[in-house]
C-alpha cells in the first residue's frame, strides 16, 4: 500500500481509503475512492483473526491467503443483481494478505433494518426469494456462502438486498485449503451439519437462509443462548420452536429448519414456495432458472407493532412436518455441543443424548437423525465416538465428574482447560499446548480407562485465562441439576449437560459452570460459580 501523504492512504496506487465501514473476524471494510475511474468503492482489507498467525503458523497464514484469493476470483465470475460485484483484487505476494475491491452498497445492512423492527411475512418472502436467487447463482459455480446472516445482507437505497462477505465461503475445487479443520462462521446461523464439522453443501446455506427469515419475522433468534458454546449446543441438540408471526411463511420455515439436510426441500422447491407467497400460485417446473430478483418495489418498511400478517397456507405445503412433537416423543440421542475457540470459530463435536433409563435423560450413545459424529485418527477407531455400554458411569454424577477430570488430566499432562463440556457419557476438554500457550489441543473421555486426543486443535481466544479443573466443586453439580429441573420448569429433560467457562480478561469475568436442561419445548440453564453457588438463571420463554 502506498500513502501519498501523512493523512492519505492509497491501496495499489489507486484506491484512496476514505473511512471505515465495518469489520469482523476476517478483516476490515473501507469506503474508498477509485482514483482511476472516479467512483466510490468498498475495499476489504483481509486480516486473520489472530494477528500473530503468520508468526506461529506460517503455513496456516499461507493457506488463508490462498483461499481468499481463490474464492474472490471465483466470486468474480458470479454476475447477479443480488450478489456483491467484485471489481478488483490487490495481491501483494507472499507474506501479505489481499485487498478485495467491491461495489459500494449504500443502503445499510439488513441487520440495521431489523434493529428498527421486524418484517411482515410478505416482505420476508420477497427478501428470501431474492437471496435464494443469489445463493443459487453462487452454488452454480461451486461457491457456498457459509455465513448467511442479516449483517451480510446489504440493502440498496430502493431496498433490494445484496448478499456480501463471501470471504469465508468454501469453493469445492479448493477443499484442500480447509484441511486444518477450521470452520468459520456465525454459530447461531450455521446449519447443524456445519457446526458438527461436516462439509454441509448447498442445503446448509438454505438452513441459514431460513433462520435469517425466521429472525426477520419473529424479532428474535430461537436458538441463541447466553454464550457461544451454549448456542452451538442448542443448534445441534434442540428443535427450532414453531414461529408465531410467520403466517403463510411458516410451512417453508418448518420444512427447512430440520437437522437432516436430506429432509429439507431443495432450492428449486424453495423458490416455488416463495413464488407462491410473493406472486400467487403459478405452474413451475424443475427446469426453472434462478429468479433474477428484479423488483419494481422493495420497501422493507417497518411493520405496525403487534400486527403480524396472516394468510392461507399454500396447498402444496400442507403436509409439512408439524412444528412440535409431543413431550417424550424423542427416545434416541442427538448429536450436540461444541467448543468455541478463537475469533475464526473453530468448532468441535460434542455428544448429546436423551432417553435415560431412570427418566433423567442420561445419554444412551446411539444416534438418530442425520447428525453424526466424526472422530479423528487420534480417537477410537470405531465408526462413532459413542460408547454404547449400558453400565457406563454417569459422568454428570460427582464420582463421574471426578473420574473424568482425572482421566483428562492424565491425557493432557495438566489440569488446566479453556473449555470443558460434560454429558452423561462424554467429557470433552480443550487445554493449552505445553510450551505454546496460544494454541490448544482437544481431548475426549468416554468412561473408558483413558482419555484420548480427539480432532484438530486450534487457537485460544484472546483474553481467555485457562482454569484449573480441580478448582471446581464437582460434588455440587448433582444438586445443581436437581435444582435446575425444579426451578426451570423442565422436570423430564431430554438432554442434560454441563459447560465450564474459563475466566476472561476481555469480559472481566470469573470462571463459571452452567448446567443446561432441555426438552421438546426448549432449553434453560443455571449459571454458578466454581463453588456451585447459583448466580444467574436463564429460563426459557414458555409464553
Percent strand equals: 15-25%
Number of domains: 3
Mean pLDDT: 74
The major β-sheet equals: 9 strands, antiparallel
Pfam family, one: Pkinase
InterPro entries: Kinase-like_dom_sf (IPR011009), Prot_kinase_dom (IPR000719), Protein_kinase_ATP_BS (IPR017441), Ser/Thr_kinase_AS (IPR008271)
EC number: 2.7.11.1
Protein name: non-specific serine/threonine protein kinase
What are the main properties of this structure?
6-stranded antiparallel beta sheet, 543 residues, globular, EC 2.7.11.1, 20% strand, Transferase(Phosphotransferase), domain 1, alpha+beta, 23 strands, Phosphorylase Kinase, domain 1
Give a brief rundown of this model.
GO terms for molecular function: protein serine/threonine kinase activity. The protein has 543 residues and is α+β, with helices and mostly antiparallel strands. 23% of the residues lie in helices and 20% in strands.
Describe the structure.
ATP binds at residue 44. Its EC number is 2.7.11.1. Residues 15-274 form the Protein kinase domain. This is non-specific serine/threonine protein kinase. The chain has 543 residues and is α+β, with helices and mostly antiparallel strands. The protein folds into three domains: 10-103, Phosphorylase Kinase, domain 1, CATH 3.30.200; 110-173 and 182-317, Orthogonal Bundle (Transferase(Phosphotransferase), domain 1); 328-543, no CATH class. 23% of the residues lie in helices and 20% in strands. The chain is built from eleven helices and 23 strands. Strands 12, 13, 14, 15, 16, 19, 21, 22 and 23 form a nine-stranded antiparallel β-sheet that branches. α4 (121-140) runs antiparallel to α9. The longest helix is centred in the N-terminal third of the chain and has 20 residues, at 121-140.
